[in-house]
Amino acid sequence: MALIDGNRIAETIVAELKAEVAALPGRKPCLALVRVGDDPASISYVRKKEKTAAEIGVTGRVILPPVTLSQSELETLIDGLNADPAVDGILVQSPLPPPQRTSGLFRRVSPNKDVDGFHTVNLGKLAQDDDSGFVSCTPAGIMELLSRSSVDLAGKHVVVLGRSLIVGKPVALLALQKRAGANGTVTVCHSGTRDLPAITRQADVLIAAIGRPEFVTGDMVKPGAVVIDVGINRVADASKKAGYRLTGDVHFPSVEPKAALITPVPGGVGPMTVAMLMRNTVKAHALAHGRH
Prior knowledge:
- About 40% of the residues lie in helices and about 15% in strands.
- It is an alpha/beta fold.
- It has two domains: about 25-110, Leucine Dehydrogenase, chain A, domain 1 (Rossmann fold, 3-Layer(aba) Sandwich), CATH 3.40.50; about 135-270, 3-Layer(aba) Sandwich (Rossmann fold), CATH 3.40.50.
- The strands form three sheets. A six-stranded parallel beta sheet has the order 1-11-8-7-5-6. A three-stranded parallel beta sheet has the order 3-2-4, sandwiched between helices.
- Helix 1 packs parallel to helix 10 and helix 6 crosses helix 10 (about 270-290).
């Protein structure tokens, strides 16, 4: 068994982007980060994104609208960012406090500035193998982790647990693509799948994005499989100062001895999501300046 060190790989990508941005003439890339409300996790995520942007040389413009803003007023704010030539990428941090609807704002962001990759245009481009769009950051990060860990999906059975538009569906499409590093045979499982362990035991590469803490146990994984744990869950733990511990969708103690490669939580997929967001922002800047 070997750990896939997402922190190390993300740091390498950040260093590559820093060199790329430093060589750019004129205005540097700008990412608008829209956060509504005071959700502790959202505050932490936006702070991390702003910090990484600054490290690379990307301008991070944090926008904190009042919680009292209506959906239409938030949409008007997004429209203004879409029209602002100094903004290359727009990220709306989820979750939004009720009654705001995140999906409506995702679709409001211009596809050319949709560095989260959630707009229907960019999802459609992904389905058509059109790389001119933006791929959502976590699926892109998973593929980068596999590539930089010398895992070639060609001919392998890839089992994806979860069918969300944020992770499950996009990563399945990426793994299916007829290109270097991909070309896998993909099965997508979900809450309605019968005899799930029988399917997961067939996986050469198992991607767990089901949102249930420690759901995947050792008896669900075949020896020598590559296991990518996308989950990040808070589980009550009185022994911890915070009163909880972070765990993935994989029961690490029972799966780790059987896996050839496995991502830890934290320090696996999470850092890659931020790195891919920065890569998308640099790409958006290049597209805006006709360089891509």
